[in-house]
Amino acid sequence: MITEIGIDDDADGIESEIDAAASAVGSVWPVHSFVTANPLAGFEDRPFDEAVSRAADLFGGRGYPRAETFRAALGEGRIDPDLLDAELTDRGCDGDPEGLLERLETAEETVETSGSGDAEATDSDAERVDRVLTKWLSAFLDEGQAEWSMPNREAGFYDAFRSVAAYDDEIPNTGLVADLPASPTTAIESALEPYPRDRWEAVFESQFAALPGWTGLLKRRADDGGAWQSAHPITPTGYLAARLALANAFGVDVSPPEGSDGPAVDASDEMADAFLSAWEATYRDGLVERVAAESEARDEGTGVREEDGARADGGGSERPDAQLVFCIDTRSEVIRRHVEATGGYETHGYAGFFGVPMEYTGYDAEASVEACPPIVDPQHRVSEVPGDDDARASRDRWADLREAAGEVVETLRSNPATAFSFVEGAGSGYGLALAARTLVPGRVRDLLDGADDAVPADHEFCEPGVHEHDDSGEGLPTGLTRDERVEYAATAFELMGWEAFGRLVVFTGHAAETANNPYDSSLDCGACAGNPGGPNARALAAICNDPEVKAGLRERGIDVPDDTVFLAAEHNTTTDEIELYDGDVPDSHAADLERLRSDLDAARGRAAAERTGQEAEESAVRETERRAADWAETRPEWGLAGNAGFVVGPRELTSGLDLDGRAFLHSYDWATDPDGDALEAILTGPMVVTQWINSQYYFSTVDNAAYGSGSKVTHNPVGNVGVYQGNGGDLMTGLPLQSLMADADTPYHQPLRLSTVVHAPVDRVTEILADNEAVTGLLDNDWLSLTVVDPTRDHRAFEYEEELAWAPAPEAAEAHAEPRTAPTAADD
Which of 192, 580, 582, 659 fits a 20 to 30 Å CA distance from 737? Predict the structure, then answer.
């Protein structure tokens, strides 16, 4: 943690308690780089039912879907009645489902009535504390949106707050805040002097939970560091000192409720958990049954493969027309089906940062971004390196012109002396532009695309700087060594189980296109920390095209033919267009490239028709383009809504299935991974990230007020870091309603915990879990489920129970037989 100016060196005990208390609040990333994460991550060491109960006590949020949601799922056949009966019996819930749902509704009404009474009785002085604090937090944490900055930000939040508090008329000039100590730790000790010392950590936790949006953001910034934190440091300690000083000034009692650290699980939650578990089991059983059937049909239980010339997907010796590697993102499942249907193409799934943990800087970008998952630290600095001087000069002229014009407009618009005259003179022009964007957004998009085509894109004259390695400066090394390049390439193919290559291999990142949307980054690549995945795809393609890397791969037993060419692409998930970055493809592959481009256009039309529900592919494509360009469109696309499953195995297990865009798909072949290293990397990396994503969607759907961000219509962006609902208060932390709901009363996203299905020997999975307590803890505490389809045991499915114990899937849905620590011969 960055040490804020003024913190006493001898306050380790308080610092430790503050850190422990802050862990209850989930991390919040800036909205410009939105990362989906479990808002209850601080409680993942507890069983799910206990965690949601504790979070309800702390944040006031629901932990389970409403009774009406369960009733709708039951009526639509999404919950198997027999599975529901077994779950209810297991929990001792007597009565028919409808009667139990009525009891759930009564319990919900009781809680809501009690909650509304609490809200009316809220201490107005406590509200004033929040109002003053959020005002100064928004000013301090601003990342370039504000025209006038808060004074003294470079000194850190606590010192900056000290310098302005005396001039804020909303703050009483009494108590601790009238003469704040130089040390934030001293301020905390003074504010809490009337309270028992053994209750201080509980006080800290309740104070962090009062504004979980702001505290989650400052906690994340303090942990991550970065340019803004270096320039304007803030710490949980400094924040608490300011908050407790304000509470002291307003006379607010900060005592936490007695016994609030361990609430019991409510009986209504027991019933809700039964309905939820049955719903999840219904979905999971259907998914597992289909994967197991495909596994049996594939009949590769022994791992025997074809002789030389086998395809990477285990098929015949004929080389595919091309191989395309997509992100494991659920949206890739739809386009992959349609790409495969257009010709002899293989598609594979791999985490969308393509295994290269880098800090990326675009050619003319003002700042770098961390283009890797939040659970991975960047290891390399990769920047765009210009190559084509003519294209670069053209790009620079356009960029300079646009930048100069933008600065003039912004200065005129925001300067009090010129704002009114600017609006008076430019109003008609702006009015026409607004009308065009509103009435004919598709045509405006066409015009803008035409203008953009005249300006060279980065990939047309730049190369990702991966080849020149320099570790002589401060911070991350620039570029990659030869060994590092070989390692990233080999890891990719080993994790996916490749053994043969076609003439074209396309690494396909993804990004969304949307207008007037503060949450646009939530639609980009989660594996790239809410950034487009094209740069990562280009980095791996450049690595794999390197002759030194190809030689290194051969040394590791991965034989890449001389005529295999790697290229990058980016999938626009809003319009399903796939743009190929093909500048380095030789003329010898022109015919292959032209056929691929044509087939990708065909696949786009089919995917757009599926997603829009329109029969005519051309009109479906135009509809997706309208959604992308329409600044009044609240649902440009559904993102990862609907996600419920994660399948780890060869593509053959799912290539013939329509999974409705609900499953993450990671390519993996157990037969090429004898030591289980590749599978371990998947279970400890991508599976954990998908669980984060799934949890964010789950809780944002279950209680959008507490864990989501409300309606986009009333969003108020603040500081380029988040959004308010209205004109102030706490930052919204989760997904907006329009990303989750089909209408005001109908969820589009089905709130289910993640069901993971792995195609591998169950003993191998057990060994991996035994070595990774954090992953096993998530499973033991029911944050997700894991089913293994074992190709060495007649393709039988085994469900993880707890403490490394498994149960055969057919028995798991019955009267809950005692789990066994490992399958026996009797299971075969």
Answer: 659
Do residues 489 and 307 touch, judged by C-beta distance below 8 A? no
Which residue, 446, 308, 470, is CA-closest to 383? 470
- pLDDT band of residue 311 (cuts 50, 70, 90) is very low
Q: What are phi and psi of 667, to 5 degrees?
A: -70, 140
Tokens matching residue 256: 């936490």
Q: Which contacts qualify for 396-399: CB closer than 8 Å, 24 or more apart? A: 398/454, 398/455, 399/364, 399/455
In 10 A of CB 387, how many CB atoms?
Answer: 12
Q: Which H or E element spans position 107?
A: helix 97-120
Range of weakest confidence among 419-423, 547-551, 801-805: 419-423
What is the rounded average pLDDT of the residues 749-763? 98
| Residue 433 pLDDT class (50, 70, 90 cuts) | low
d(CA 718, CA 16) in angstroms, rounded, equals: 31
**DSSP H stretches of helix in 60-96:** 67-75, 81-90
> Which H or E run includes 787?
strand 784-790
Token readout for 496 is 């996916």
Spatial strand order in the sheet of 345-350: 345-350, 322-327, 504-511, 565-572, 578-581
Structure tokens of 432? 């026409």
Residue 717 dihedral angles phi and psi, to the nearest 5°: -60, 140
Residue 796 has pLDDT above 90, yes or no: yes
Distance of alpha carbon 488 from alpha carbon 364, whole angstroms:
27
Pairing of strands 746-747, 741-743: antiparallel
What pLDDT is recorded for position 308? 34
90 touches 816 (CB < 8 A): yes
CA distance 499 to 559: 8
Q: What SS3 class is residue 364?
A: coil
The residues, ordered by sequence, that sit 6+ positions from 400 with a Cβ below 8 Å of its Cβ are none
- Find the DSSP H helices in 141-183: 157-165
Whether residue 412 is predicted with pLDDT greater than 50 in this model: the reply is: no
> How far, CA to CA in Å, does 789 sit from each of 70, 299, 504, 653, 762?
29, 13, 32, 11, 8
